[in-house]
Amino acid sequence: STGSPRAQTARRTTIMALPVLLAAAPSYSQGFQDLRLRRILRELDLDTRPGTFVEFGWRGLYGANTHVLSSRGWSGVRFDGDRRDAKHNVTRAMVTTHSVVRLFERHGVPRDITYVSVDIDSADIWVLRALLRSSFAPTVLTVEYNSNYPWGVALAFPDLDAEPALSKKMWDKPCTKMWDGSCTKIWDGSCFMGSSATAIALAARELGYHVVDVEPGLDLFLVRASAWGARPVPDLEKIADWIYRPINLHYNAGKSMAAEHIAALVDYREYSR
Asked: CB count, 10 Å around CB of 126?
């Protein structure tokens, strides 16, 4: 059966083997997110016709999760806090818990949008919650997680929209260089970015989504539970070593994060009780 130990083992093996299995296919993502996405869309029978997408965070075609979709006739909009690119339908906008639904409505995003890519290096989990608690119901999402946290640690980046005083204290400096810690609402290269995989998985379950795949060190793949049905899902605890990737400790001479940043983190388990 699909829920048997053998099926679960096969599913876990597929997660790790996918880049090898699809190595001949072109990939534009930071990792292999677009290849994993295509596999999920095929599983859901959503890969045979153009769908719709939104992508938060745009680094250009190389690094984008949605280029593989737009090149196949999909329609969508991209948002980035720094960039504007009419050719690729990139709008300059800060995506926050207060702005995400308004941005979707302003740009005519369908309520049943096929795919959303969330990568804003900060309050991703709170933007995810704001979106999925609205009338928008994406079928598939990818959400970047902070791989510096081991599996089981449910720490979340603070929702700065909900704490104006904290937001001003942390983000009121002018942006000079990308990695010197002075940028306004831009990742400073330290471990103070995004939320743990555990926190995002907990939020996904609360909001009616399954975590069905992982791009190790980068993104979790969420599918609406009603769309995924009885298909098996991976036991994330059993692939904890693939989720944990403390890559950002190499930035800023190994400095993890400032004391005020540590104090601002949210224990998502406690928050969600």
From this structure: 24
- Can you give the pTM of this predicted structure? 0.86
Q: How far is CA 232 from CA 48, 94, 141, 151, in A?
A: 23, 36, 17, 20
Instruction: Confirm whether 89 is domain-assigned.
Output: yes
What's 230's domain CATH number?
3.40.50
Rounded Cα–Cα distance for residues 261 and 145 (Å):
17
The answer to whether 118 touches 127, Cβ cutoff 8 Å, is yes
Give the pLDDT confidence of 69-126 residue by residue, as tens digits. Answer: 999 999 999 998 877 888 888 999 889 999 999 999 999 999 999 999 999 988 999 9
Residue 76 CA to residue 134 CA, distance in Å, equals 19
Is residue 216 included in any domain, yes or no?
yes
Give dist(CA 104, CA 108) in Å, integer: 6
Measuring CA to CA, how many Å separate 125 from each of 68, 112, 160, 218, 227?
A: 25, 20, 12, 14, 21
Domain count, the chain: 1
Is residue 111 within 8 A of residue 158, CB to CB? The reply is no
